[in-house]
Amino acid sequence: MDAALAAAPAAPVPEPLPPEALDEFDHLLGFVVSSSGALRRAGAEDLWRLGDGVALALVDALYDTERTTDERSAALEVLGSGAHDAANPLLLEVLTSGPDAWMRSSAAWYLGELVTEGWICDAVLRLKYETDESVVVYLAQALGKHDVLAGLSGLRVISRSSWSEQQRTTAEALIAELTAEVEVPVGEPQPRDTAFDRAVWSWIARLGEFQLRGVDDARFILTNLGADVAPHLARALSDDDRYVRLHACQCLERMGSKGSSAADALVEQLGSQDLGPHAAVALGTVTQDSVHDRARTLLLELVHNEAASPGLRLGAARGLARHRSRLSLEGVLTQFERERERWPELAQALAEAAVSIHALEERDLADPERDRRVDAAYRFAIACLDTPGLDPASTGAVWEESFLPSSAALNQAERPELAPFETLEADWNAIGERRGPEFGATAMWRARKALLESALVPVLR
Amino acid sequence: MKPILGLLVLALALWGATFLFGESDGGPTLPAPAVSHSSSHNCAECHAQVFEEWSSGPHADSWTGAAVRKLSGDFSNQDCIDCHAPQPVFVTGIAERVLPRIERRVEGVDCITCHALPDGGVAGSFTSETVACRPEATVALTRADFCAGCHDQHQTVQQWRDSRWAAEGIDCIDCHMPLRDGTPSGGRRHGMHGGTDLVMLQSAVEVRGSRVDDDPANGWLIEIENVGAGHSFPTDERSRAADLFWRPAGSEGAWTHLHRFRSPYRYETDVPDTLLPVHATERYAVLDADDAPVTGPIEVVLLYKRSPHYRDMTDPMQDLWPEDPGVDPYATDVPRDAIVVHRLVLGGDQ
User: Fold this and answer.
1) Structurally, how many domains does chain A consist of?
2) d(CA A384, CA A377)
3) Last residue of a domain, one of A71, A86, A101
4) Distance to chain B for A86, nearest Cα, Å
5) CA A136 vs CA A113, A133, A305: distances in Å
6) Which domain holds residue A38?
7) Is residue A122 one of the residues assigned to a domain?
8) What pLDDT, on a 0 to 100 scale, did the predictor assign at position A293?
9) Tell me, what's the pLDDT at A4?
10) A211·B153 Cβ contact <8 A
């Protein structure tokens, strides 16, 4: 594992409060409950003077159902407002294990107020498991205070589908607030403190575990942290552990253009026997919709290189589909024509690249030969939805991504060949939502293929 | 006499090798060129029966099956890819976790996953320089560790290691890849059936009824014993569940849920793990709505389901696997994939 992780000190283990201090603890906690303003703060400060062990005593008080609600609430307030090193890991524990939503929400709020950032990874992970909407809102807000937008997707779900109108409104307002504050270019890492780096490295180390539970959690965290961990992941691409290497590569692929700072590191891995194919996909993804000529050129070279391994060529083709540069189109079409009879899986990836690049928008009526080549790739991409041996969902996902951009292009110019895209998305989704005993997955793809045939084939040459 | 004895020894040696390592190809004896294997379909030409068995089993279905497509959101949940389209086990290493591959994902857990060696060779049950794929006898293929990369993700192999089966040398393949005709020379079945096979489900557990303290006046106890599974019943997490239901015998009315055997998915932090451990026996008292013992005749059913949801727990039979093979059980929001494992009537005239 990376030296940066090996050098990281172990997290401090909180000590319990000595028994002789428990009466004083109860007395001071009672004082906090019955006070307000400066006196309340003074009581909290006095509690912390009992020593680090007060943190554990506060958590015990918080979870003690024999105590009054005021006492339990005050215990959490003292734990959270102390900004004390001993409190931080316990606040995280309350966030992840607190039995009541109000505890977890409060813990999230107090964590957001911290200056240090070692808690952020675990807080992002909580987004994966939290089931209470109010906690998700507080978590998203806390993370947002530290310019981590991992909570946005959860907020969007709440804003769309919460049964509570108040929760929907709150989520919408927070989404607007968080997205308005973004000033940093996508993919540009921001400096974080050493506690954050330490936590990131410890999660990168977990990418090498045997049990996928830990790996899945690590992938979730690292992917959602985005640009700020891309440099860490770029270093992890050359880790000694192949599992760490490959899963770091997956994280970069999943974060999309937020991982663009790792593009050069991915290029270096294209020659790696085990990582190369995955690095090719990730390279195309992190450089998507950008002017990154080196990525495009390398991926095209790999696709054309018949001496390269099949996996690497396939990965490169999928990378080109993610990269979506119109400058790739000629090379994609040329190789598609070579492969369509001899290697359908590579031809499928190249046809997907043609659709992903929106080749139909590139048609040039003055060059009917080229239009015919574009249309052949589109026909193949339609056929892929019902061709034995090919994965319909792979091409289906590319079709879905093409509907909106193509429809938008139609609105910008008079492009009759794009007209079918105006209604395709709705019809496509309607087929996916149809439920009935006769309508299985295969039938769904056949129906979608028929939809594309009826809509697109008439405008293809 | 000596030549005859020599031939006998040679025949015994050959039989012994076959017994140890399984099927013999029985093919030509002239040296054949090695062929490269870029797809499991390459294997079908010589191994048609094996290919057919594999094609109808869950390994072949691991990327394309309706259930996994539904549960993974067409693999938009990319975490599922590692085990559902893995690189060759011999490449990632025995007992190591598998890694996902880029190509041929539609072939799922295929011939190459288990038989491809890192140097391009083919692991098999015997060594031969004379057949096209030039197999190398590789005992690791038969060991439980070989399955662990995927199947120990949810402790299935560990459950087996902790069982008497492991001590007795009964491996995964003894149940999931039985000898085709009862002899090693016939080779092993490659269907890899388990929870997809009713006979295997039925042989995994026994369900019995008895009276509390054996007194006919007392209420019913339902006893279930894991007699045949080499691991917990069911095994794995998340989706697989077995449920006991009961209702008064002769009634067409509502069923009452008695117990669920299931390991919760990782998101379900408040759901207990209730798998029936290997060799374990558990008993459940049958109580009515007022928690009073039920003494009259009852009908009991054990259902197995690959997705743990029923539309109506008082009418679980509406979610039975469709009798019409043309009907997709996963086409509905709540899949119709329940299987009756055991059904018994206790008391009364039976």
Assistant:
1) 2
2) 10
3) A86
4) 27
5) 16, 5, 48
6) 1-86
7) no
8) 86
9) 54
10) yes
Task: Compute the C-alpha angle B203/B207/B213, nearest 5°.
Answer: 145
Residue A111 has pLDDT above 80, yes or no: yes
pLDDT at B148 over 90: yes
Q: Is A230 within the bounds of a domain?
A: no
* B145 near A CB under 8 A: no
Find chain A residues with C-beta within 8 A of B152's C-beta.
Answer: 210
Q: Say if A409 falls within a structural domain.
A: yes
**Where a domain ends, among A31, A52, A86?**
A86
Tell me the shortest Cα–Cα distance from A411 to chain B, in angstroms: 30
Residues 6 or more apart whose Cβ sits within 8 Å of residue A88: A111, A114, A116, A118, A119
Strand partners, B123: B136
d(CA A49, CA B343): 66
Helix (H) or strand (E) holding B210: strand B205-211
| Residue A323 to residue A336: CA distance in whole angstroms | 17
If you measure CA to CA, which chain A residue comes closest to B101?
A: A311
The per-residue pLDDT for A181 is: 63
A281 with B82: Cβ contact below 8 A: no
Check A441 against B99: CB less than 8 A apart. no
Token representation of residue A290: 């950008």
Q: Which residue of B has its CA nearest to A441?
A: B66
Cβ contacts (< 8 Å) between B82 and chain A: which residues? 212
Contact at CB, B331 and A314, closer than 8 angstroms: no
CB contact under 8 A, B331 and A436: yes
Residue A284 within any structural domain of the chain = no
Do B331 and A435 make contact, defined as CB atoms within 8 angstroms?
Answer: yes
Question: Residue B237 — pLDDT band, cuts 50, 70, 90?
Answer: low
